[in-house]
Amino acid sequence: MVDVRVGVLGPMVATVDGQPVDLGGTRQRAVLAVLLLARQRLVPVERIIDLVWADTKAPALTTLYGYVKQLRRALDPGRNAGPQGELLARQGPGYVLRLAADNVDAELFAGRVALGVRALRQGDPAEALHLLDEALARWRGEPYAEFAGYAFVQPEVTRLTGLRLDAVEERYAALLALGEHAAVVGDLAGHAAEYPFRERGHELYALALYRAGRQREALDALRAARAVFADELGLDPGPALRHLESAVLRQDPELAGPSGTAAVTGPAPTLPERTRNLPFEVNRLLDRPGERAAVDRMLGQHRLVTLTGPGGVGKTTLALQVARSRPDTDGPWLVELAGLGAPELLVETVGAALGLPAVATLEQLATVLGARELLLLLDNCEHLVAPVGTAVATLLARCGGLRVLATSREPLRVAGEAVFEVPVLSGEQAAELFDQRAAAVAPDWAPGPGDREKIRTICAELDRLPLAIELAAAHCQVLSVEQIAGGLDDRFALLADGPTGVPDRHRSLVDAVDWSYHLLDAAQQRVFRWLSVFGGGFDLAAAGAVVGGPALAPVAALVRKSLVMVEPGTDPRRFRLLETLRQYGRSRLDPAELAAAQAAHRDWVLRYAEEAERQVRGPESGVVLAGLAQRQAEIRLAFASALAAGDGRYALRLGGALAMYWYRTGQIVEGTGWLQAASAAAPDAEPGVRARALIGLGGLAYLAGDPAAAGRSMRDAVDAADEAGDTVTGALALAYRALFETVAGVTAVPDAIADAGSAVALARQVGEPAIEAEALSALGMLRRIAGQVDRARVDLAESVQVARRCGHGFVEASSSWLAMKVALDLTDPAGALAAGVSVLDLLERDSDVTSWLVIVHTAAAALAGLGRPEDGAALLAAVERHGSRYGFVPDLMDPVDSPRQVATVREALTGEQWATARQQGWQLSRDEVNALLRVHAPWPGGPGGRTVD
């Protein structure tokens, strides 16, 4: 069998039995890249073509077949007979590359990095250094270097590039663990400067400085990092940097490296034999070193630490791991309280666990423990919060050597208590736990092709709760991973058969949640049930609207009891339910209560959306659009529940309110889908409601490149608004009907100009400057179509001025875009670029998508006119990349000017220049595009120095 190896860490190379082979041209190599990235999974022929020829017309199938033939000839010269023996095999509708991970340098690299990190975590820095050096030695340059213009490789390039930085930083960590702080401090300074947003680099640099005896400089480095995160990202540093800064200030002994360890003469001291009652591990427990270290530090600083979190998050497991590592002379001792139903027996229960059956009062217990140094682990206190809190407060006051580690679904609320909210597992930890438990119940189990991604999805669906993951993985003895994933829609039925010998509350997922639910009073239970109709996060105002009353007290109680999560860093504060808890809450709603809760939820969503509609054409539009984006899950739920309930009129009202949001954020497919479904469900809705929805449909059809459909919608909107007597909506619909029907060739330009002028007059008559600005924008565009360029400039300048006065940023940007076109008509590329750059800040403020895309597209032609066609080609590629995320293509929306703009750029470049510039442009972020435009701003001082005229 031949030994085939492929390298992608740099330009793609391949060897067969150690000899390099020719992989052909870029497209042929791209086919190989698609198959490599599939990792021995089938890739359909259509998918290969879509990915490799995304930037051009799809070739004949024979072209792909020829490439595959050439790749086979290069990589598998001795092809084994039969498709199952082939390296590059045809299988069903596509191809599969059966190349083991060890034969691809990127996979070998990733494997070595994982082993190196594991060795470092297990206390073997020398081995870690060796493995990480091996991994980094495989790096020859940018991964998949010749495929910069291909979108399909970008996620893998991002993954590998990030992994390389992880490897570099872990290598520094290994060197620090080996006492090489003096040797690496300079390199770490450079690394932190080059990658200012990577916390790990700042952490290692500060640690190296501290170990080199430069405490002041270490603090300066940490504070500089804090400033970078605050100024550039608007964020606080993470817990690792905050802890390190605190530890440096305290000169914490834990920061000392190998060279800081005191020399020991004679044999090492041994701890005396301790008495304890902690259970031995039955299963190999998933280690959570970060959480374990954090809790251990807290116990060093506080005498009472309570671990909180929802049922099944792993509080008991973590507490036991911490307790087993404690050096207390007389302990630790575990007291299990889950089965204790009588609070008056609390002292006797603690005494019995400590081997003190004669203790009957809290005073006696305090007397016995007064001279001891021990850790008391009180497990599952949530149903006895008040009596446990009283007892703990008394014992801590009387027993100076006592420390208490408690687990509870809510804090004990005792003076001096430190609370550690146990987080759910990370994605990597969750997948590792799934593998462990699956292998335990089925020793021959191994994930099949494609199972890795499904396992990650299962873990995410289960909120990465350890209990839920363990229960799901146990089904691997009988079910496939695909079947387990499919069963999560009814997770409480699927995850209902846990092992014997565990507490009842851990026998099934529903038991775990039941335990918490039944600790609530009736009012709290109702609030919890009704909050389950939310699809995502919610604030107190939303919660109050849905549950029908003040929400602060009940939501705060549910947060304390770990049934509602707080979204940190939000202001106003937002909350959410884990998906498992949300589904449980929904299951507790009877049909009538569910209908009532959903109706209340819909009412709140509609009120929010209609208030947003009133502000979206004003100076607060950026805040309004951001708020709507944050509530997307709720909006979708409201549409779905309204249509399921047969309330098409509601869906039409909601769709009409969201029309401008969908338009500005480029959500063509979603907005059109909801509006069409609502229209079909409410054919007899009153005309005023239909008019607003029809305007939304028309705008989205125009964005999608169907001006004829857009014009028909606007014509129907004019008629409906007239029937309703709604002059404001009628003026808006009239202006856009004139524009869209002209673009579609349905209406003569003079008639359209007259209609747009009438729309301007109507808007002025009713005192609606925002609608006036939109109508003026349409009028200016129509005059340009008619060849009345000078009058178009006047109308557009007036539109910009009116829009600025009323804060209607969308129209200011839209009319500035049209002014760019007029400037290009007049052979004034500098003026065109100036008009576009003048509204960039506004577009960023509002997170506008569609206006930004068309302005950048038009600016490409302006740059070509200024002698910068390479930059123009880069901008066109950036527009294509960013627009593809939304299904928005300027060529479709603007079929006359857009192709001409592309031709202006293309004709100024050779084929090679065009391709190179497009490759560069495909990588540009939105911020980088804006920076490129501002660099070429044709007036001193940048965009603030000129206005559209």
From TrEMBL:
The keyword DNA damage does not apply. The keyword DNA-binding applies. SMART domains: BTAD (SM01043), Trans_reg_C (SM00862). CDD domains: BTAD. One of its GO terms (molecular function) is DNA binding. Residues 255-274 are annotated as: Disordered. It comes from the Bacteria. Belongs to the AfsR/DnrI/RedD regulatory family. InterPro entries: BTAD, OmpR/PhoB-type_DNA-bd, P-loop_NTPase, Sig_transdc_resp-reg_C-effctor, TPR-like_helical_dom_sf, WH-like_DNA-bd_sf. The lineage of its organism: Bacteria, Bacillati, Actinomycetota, Actinomycetes, Micromonosporales. Residues 1-99 form the OmpR/PhoB-type domain. Residues 1-99 bind DNA. This is Predicted ATPase. Keywords: DNA-binding. It holds the Pfam family AAA_25. One of its GO terms (biological process) is regulation of DNA-templated transcription.
